[in-house]
Amino acid sequence: MAPRVLISDKLSDAAVQIFKDRGIEVDFQPDLGKDKDKLAEIIGNYDGLAIRSATKVTPKILEKATRLKVVGRAGIGVDNFGNSITTAEHAIAMMFALARQIPQADASTQAGKWEKNRFMGVELTAKTLGIIGCGNIGSIVAERGIGLKMKVIAFDPFLSPERALDLGVEKVELDDLLARADVITLHTPLTEKTKNVLSAENLAKTKKGVRIINCARGGLVDEAALRAALDSGQVAGAAFDVFTVEPAETNPLFGHPNVVCTPHLGAATTEAQENVALQVAEQMSDYLLNGAISNAVNFPSITAEEAPKLRPFIELAEKLGSFAGQLTDTDIKTIRITYEGEVAKLKVKALTSAAVAGLLRPALADINVVSAPSVAKERGIVVEETTRAAEADFDSLITLTVITDSYERSVSGTVFADGAPRIVNIKGIKVDAEFAPSMLYVTNEDKPGFIGRFASLLGDAGVNIATFALGRDRQGGDAIALVEVDGPVPADVLEKVAALPQVKQAKGLSF
């Protein structure tokens, strides 16, 4: 029986034909994405679902999708690279629109006015372009800015000095960028660290008369604070393609004479829409017909035969990366991953992708196992792989080492017979702990009485301990506590733990 695919959004005829040519039965209902109840009612009849932006795959729909094997989304949420040029070009277009007041001048002229002296623009040549987030899209914007004879500076904690040199940009800290940039454009994902990166406080630090562009994510800029900065003249103009609430029917920026707005058009070009549609049709067909996975958002590219052996080690690699990433707050120079024993015989490229994704995700929320190696490369992070025979007490062992300018930190893990990934070594100290949704990681001096004070503090705060793993390098030396707790540890409790005698570091972790 041929696989069945439901297409619930508009896809090109060429993309639909790819499915048919590969022998897949296609049900093309391009307006179905707007009817959630109808979609949930029929989704159980299909092996694949191809969508764009209109269809939202909710838990209710997935609950009914008893046959569903794959969801393919033709859009930037899955393929961050197919639309990169399109989004970067939109940011450049918005910069020109701001510099020359093109939308305002167009509206005035078509209204029968001839206000030549009203719309005095500024040249971009020799101006300083400040880029917040110099990854795939940001680097394209940087190249275009340099081509326009602009001075380009960038703030990105994951941009290495070597990569900055290759791009021809100057790597700077955020405060330096705010003070120097004539134009600021944002190209970073929305995370806890980047939310309102342009806050009222930071907007006050900008160069007077700065122009601000956001074609990345709503929420990167405090829109109310930006409106106040526009009203005061601190900010000369703003161009936004994304908003905190979308669809944006109302917004603090709307109606200001020096604001240009577009309805999330960053990826909206004919070329970008067609390219991603054809890609998703090919990739879904490959998976449904022969089990091959390519460019998946939640799994690296592997063959159907490799998947069962790889899955538990992919989970291990990603969680080791996440562990290291949640403890890393500075620039990463090198990621070194060593595979020992039986795991070294598997497809380690897939494992490395998972480890790098886990490592970078705390800072770059949108990253996945498909994009992770490219993102690391863009930022000049060296990724090294080593395979060797088993030298430890385990049939398989993965060791992930993070190297920065100031330290080198390693964490090792394995998979036992039960299939559960475990941490077995942290910074050379032996431990034995399973990963859990909420954990507390503490490093301390190995002194009597610490464990009692620590456990009492958590108990007094109402934090329940589920498991408690301990390790030390020597008597009276450095010690580690890795504690599974029933829910995230409140910030004030973390502060109290960090204030305990002998504690060097206390960090809440989530997996």
Describe the structure.
- The protein is an alpha/beta fold and 511 residues long.
- It has four domains: 1-81 and 267-292, Rossmann fold (3-Layer(aba) Sandwich); 84-261, NAD(P)-binding Rossmann-like Domain (Rossmann fold); 298-427, D-3-phosphoglycerate dehydrogenase, domain 3 (60s Ribosomal Protein L30, Chain: A, 2-Layer Sandwich), CATH 3.30.1330.90; 435-511, Alpha-Beta Plaits (2-Layer Sandwich), CATH 3.30.70.260.
- The chain has helices spanning 13-21, 36-42, 59-64, 84-100, 102-110, 136-147, 161-167, 174-180, 200-203, 223-232, 270-290, 307-326, 348-360, 372-378, 450-460, 491-498, and strands at 4-7, 25-28, 48-51, 70-73, 128-132, 151-155, 170-171, 183-186, 210-214, 235-240, 259-261, 332-341, 382-388, 396-404, 408-415, 421-426, 429-434, 438-445, 465-472, 478-485, 503-510.
- Strands 7-6-5-8-9-10-11 form a seven-stranded parallel sheet, sandwiched between helices. A six-stranded mixed sheet has the order 13-12-14-15-16-17. Strands 2-1-3-4 form a four-stranded parallel sheet, with helices on one face.
- A hairpin with a 3-residue loop joins strand 14 and strand 15 (408-415).
- Helix 1 runs parallel beside helix 11 (270-290), helix 4 crosses helix 6 (136-147) and helix 12 runs parallel beside helix 13 (348-360).
- The radius of gyration is 26 Å and the shape is globular.
- The mean pLDDT is 89.
